[in-house]
Specification:
Blueprint lengths: L1 E3 L7 E8 L1 H4 L6 E2 L3 E9 L3 E15 L6 E6 L2 E7 L17 E2 L4 E3 L1 H11 L38 H10 L1
Parallel strand pairs: 7-8
Antiparallel strand pairs: 1-9, 2-4, 3-5, 4-5, 5-6, 5-7
């Protein structure tokens, strides 16, 4: 996803992209259901280019409780400033030490911006639904489908050990 600044005719230019996840640099971090769509505004600020964008993608991920695959729609945004390779003035902070990204020539490559934005928007603890019961800790049955009949594990009962101590005293 590259933007040639020579093609920018106005102060603010609107662009739209659609790409396969592999073209952006995804290689197994997530399974996408369709292309990644990106809409950006490029603000020409003379030697600096502010890129404000929004991303739309659907990802298939595993539920952290029941391990079923489900789809999540991601719609994050990003706001990045790209700076042309200009000779540094004395006392000026180089782009590598700020939040600005250095450009190579007249090309702004937003592929990495999009990739990082999507990675940050992926849920850390994905759950297919707020009522998901997960898997039985003993037999592994999906508790969303049926109750398995196993005794509840003592891990969920922090004082279960006291019961055994009281039985021994009798």
């Amino acid at each position: 996803m590259q933007i040639d600044v020579k093609d920018l005719k106005e102060q603010v230019t609107h662009l739209a992209f659609s790409a396969k996840p592999e073209e952006i640099g995804f290689s197994g971090e997530a399974v996408f259901d369709g292309p990644v769509k990106v809409s950006v505004e490029v603000h020409d600020m003379s030697e600096r280019y502010r890129v404000v964008g929004s991303v739309a993608a659907t990802v298939k991920i595993d539920c952290g409780r029941c391990l079923k695959k489900f789809k999540v729609k991601l719609t994050p945004g990003f706001d990045v400033i790209h700076v042309k390779d200009a000779p540094e003035d004395e006392g000026e902070i180089p782009p590598s030490e700020t939040d600005e990204l250095a450009m190579e020539g007249d090309i702004i490559d937003i592929g990495e911006d999009v990739r990082q934005t999507l990675l940050l928007d992926l849920p850390m603890n994905p759950v297919c639904g707020k009522n998901c019961k997960g898997l039985c800790q003993t037999c592994g049955s999906d508790l969303n489908k049926k109750k398995c009949g196993c005794d509840e594990p003592s891990l969920n009962k922090p004082f279960a050990g006291i019961k055994n101590i009281l039985k021994k005293k009798k």
